[in-house]
């Protein structure tokens, strides 16, 4: 499978290249993805974004549902292969994109994993978690999660027995896009900025 087209932000010779995949319902240039990519690039990191085949089809005037898991994982493999010259390669993404990255991180031998709003379970189904591979994950990982995320709250995640290689950073009152309620005293930008800082610290300290 050929590697998809990408958006690159930040210096091409940066010490760390972070590859970010989009979530199931929004493209690689959504406001969420733009905020994290440009915010991290401003800190001197190279950020590479790409789209899975189904999302790239929007440029042709069509928009099918998400690709099968095999296609999503093979896309990740192709992207990582195309970036083999990167000095330090970290992969991850928003929701589904981060989940797919987490499923190939150990296989591909990347330096780290960053998940933004991980879909631990379907909304309302904490009894059916998608975590088996996270319990055995070896790759150093950071998961940034809102405390009100319907795909996984602190209470849900506390009992999952995740691998010790995984660090969690909780954003106050954030939903799946890290947006807090209007009465919380927080703004979405504050949560995005805090999430960006958490990722930057994780990468600076060396995943």
Fold and architecture overview:
The protein has 207 residues and is α/β, with parallel strands linked by helices. Strand 6 (141-146), helix 6 and strand 7 (166-171) form a beta-alpha-beta unit. The protein contains 7 helices and 7 strands. The longest helix has 17 residues, at 188-204. The chain has helices at residues 31-41, 53-56, 69-82, 96-108, 132-135, 154-158, 188-204, and strands at 6-9, 17-21, 46-50, 89-94, 112-116, 141-146, 166-171. A 7-stranded mixed sheet has the order 1-3-2-4-5-6-7. The model has no long low-confidence stretch (mean pLDDT 94). The chain has a single domain, classed as Alpha/Beta hydrolase fold, catalytic domain (Rossmann fold, 3-Layer(aba) Sandwich).
Notable characteristics:
207 residues; alpha/beta; Rossmann fold; seven-stranded mixed beta sheet; globular
CATH class: Alpha Beta
Distance between the termini: 28 Å
Task: Count up the helices.
Answer: 7
Number of strands: 7
Outline: globular
Q: Can you give me a brief rundown of this structure?
A:
The protein has helices at residues 31-41, 53-56, 69-82, 96-108, 132-135, 154-158, 188-204; strands spanning 6-9, 17-21, 46-50, 89-94, 112-116, 141-146, 166-171.
Q: SSE layout and pairings?
A:
Blueprint (H helix, E strand, L loop, with lengths): L5 E4 L7 E5 L9 H11 L4 E5 L2 H4 L12 H14 L6 E6 L1 H13 L3 E5 L15 H4 L5 E6 L7 H5 L7 E6 L16 H17 L3
Parallel strand pairs: 2-3, 2-4, 4-5, 5-6, 6-7
Antiparallel strand pairs: 1-3
Helix pairs in contact: 1-7, 3-4
């Amino acid at each position: 499978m050929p590697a998809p087209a990408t958006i690159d932000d930040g210096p091409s010779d940066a010490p760390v290249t972070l590859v970010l995949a989009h979530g199931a319902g929004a493209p690689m240039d959504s406001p969420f993805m733009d905020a994290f990519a440009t915010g991290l690039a401003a800190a001197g990191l190279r950020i590479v974004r790409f789209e899975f085949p189904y999302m790239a089809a929007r440029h042709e005037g069509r928009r099918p549902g998400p690709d099968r898991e095999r296609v999503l994982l093979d896309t990740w493999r192709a992207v990582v292969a195309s970036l083999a010259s990167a000095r330090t390669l970290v992969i991850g993404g928003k929701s589904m994109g981060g989940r797919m990255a987490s499923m190939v991180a150990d296989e591909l031998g990347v330096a780290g994993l960053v998940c933004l709003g991980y879909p631990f379970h379907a909304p309302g189904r904490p009894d059916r978690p998608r975590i088996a591979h996270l319990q055995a994950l070896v790759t150093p990982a950071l998961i940034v999660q809102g405390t009100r995320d319907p795909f996984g709250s602190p209470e849900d995640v506390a009992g999952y027995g995740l691998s010790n290689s995984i660090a969690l950073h909780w954003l106050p009152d954030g939903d799946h896009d890290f947006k807090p309620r209007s009465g919380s005293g927080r703004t979405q930008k504050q949560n995005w900025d805090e999430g960006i800082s958490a990722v930057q610290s994780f990468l600076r300290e060396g995943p």
